[in-house]
Specification:
With about 350 residues, the chain is an alpha/beta fold. The protein has helices at about 10-20, 25-35, 50-60, 135-145, 165-175, 195-205, 220-225, 235-250, 270-275, 305-315, 335-345, and strands at about 65-75, 80-85, 90-100, 100-105, 110, 130, 150-155, 190-195, 210-215, 255-260, 285-290, 320.
């Protein structure tokens, strides 16, 4: 039987744990503050707890604390890519991006990914397991500790499909936004999905103010199926309808993520078809020149092609931006650093 994971617990759950330990209720708030406000990396750091309680926590609970394996820093823009080790030997990636409005961290939600998108390095090798809420949180806590600065924006857009890890995702969001913890605004959290229709519907009912980002990447059902296997399960029409429902129920505009792949989905016809999809004028479209991945043949279009695509969308009155390319001199694409580390480790054994 697994030990209780205290970093994934709410204050109410910690109160119940303290009651079972025979401790006063206020200990729960103290522990929660150490875990989520101060972001300590061990139980021994909780100095206002008695030695006996700290020993009991160490023996009878699970304390998740990620270990930094390596970090790459871009000489171009200061972007940092972290590789963290989990307690079971798996590794995950996280990315720190510095903007004028604050520090943003892109976290992983799974070890690997089962979605199978043809242009993505994260999905090579499939999904190993879901991440716990604590493992998602600690990516932010360890990066904040490493740079000595506050993280104000979170993007759940790293390795994994967040809505495929739904319960842990929702627990993570409620903990990272808790006023007694890091108190990050829900409006500063973005969750990406490749289009899991039932889970989008559930998310719309959670009474959250987060931004939903749909990884669309193709303007037609046929093309989407050819590059995103999940499209064979959830039709494009149903995905767009689910996003429209999310917008109507939450009032939060959906972001459309569109990775531009040279010769696949970056031509004028694709732009026209994308602009003609229902609901696009209510969305924000984010164009992403794809990061080349050595395991596939996907290449990024030229700057001229990207601008031409953008101009077509704007001529239809659609709000569109081109994602600022950050960390291109390091392992920029999701999953690349983790895969290279795994390969190097296998060669050395």
């Amino acid at each position: 039987m697994s030990l209780p994971d205290i970093k994934s617990m709410t204050i109410e759950e910690l109160s119940e744990l303290m009651d079972s330990f025979g401790e006063k209720p206020f200990r729960a708030s103290q522990i929660f503050s150490w875990l989520h406000e101060k972001g300590v990396s061990s139980v021994s750091d909780m100095t206002n707890l008695s030695k006996a309680l700290r020993q009991r926590l160490e023996q009878e609970t699970e304390f998740v604390s990620l270990k930094k394996v390596t970090m790459q820093e871009s000489a171009l823009d200061g972007t940092r890519k972290y590789l963290f080790a989990l307690s079971d030997g798996n590794c995950i990636e996280s990315v720190l991006m510095r903007y004028h409005h604050g520090n943003s961290v892109c976290i992983s939600s799974q070890v690997g990914c089962n979605m199978g998108c043809s242009f993505c390095a994260s999905t090579i090798g499939g999904k190993k397991r879901d991440l716990l809420a604590s493992e998602m949180l600690d990516q932010i806590y360890r990066i904040s500790e490493d740079i000595g600065e506050r993280v104000s924006n979170v993007v759940v857009m790293g390795t994994g499909e967040p809505l495929d890890n739904y319960d842990n995702l929702i627990r993570f969001i409620r903990l990272i936004t808790d006023p007694s913890g890091k108190n990050i605004s829900q409006r500063n959290i973005t969750v990406s999905t490749c289009g899991l229709v039932p889970q989008i519907g559930r998310l719309a009912e959670e009474n959250l103010a987060i931004t939903l980002a749909l990884s669309l990447h193709a303007p037609t059902q046929e093309l989407r199926e050819s590059i995103m296997p999940i499209a064979r399960k959830y039709h494009l029409t149903d995905v767009l309808n689910a996003c429209d429902t999310y917008f109507r129920k939450t009032g939060r505009r959906v972001t459309i993520e569109y990775s531009l792949i040279h010769g696949i989905n970056d031509d004028a016809v694709s732009a026209e078809r994308l602009a003609s999809l229902p609901g696009m004028k209510k969305c924000h479209i984010n164009l992403i020149p794809v990061n080349p991945v050595r395991e596939n043949s996907c290449q990024s279009p030229s700057r001229k092609q990207v601008m031409a695509f953008k101009n077509i969308l704007e001529n239809y009155g659609i709000n569109v931006t081109i994602r600022r390319e950050m960390g291109r001199d390091i392992d920029g694409a999701c999953g690349q650093l983790r895969r290279r580390f795994a390969e190097d480790r296998s060669l050395s054994t």
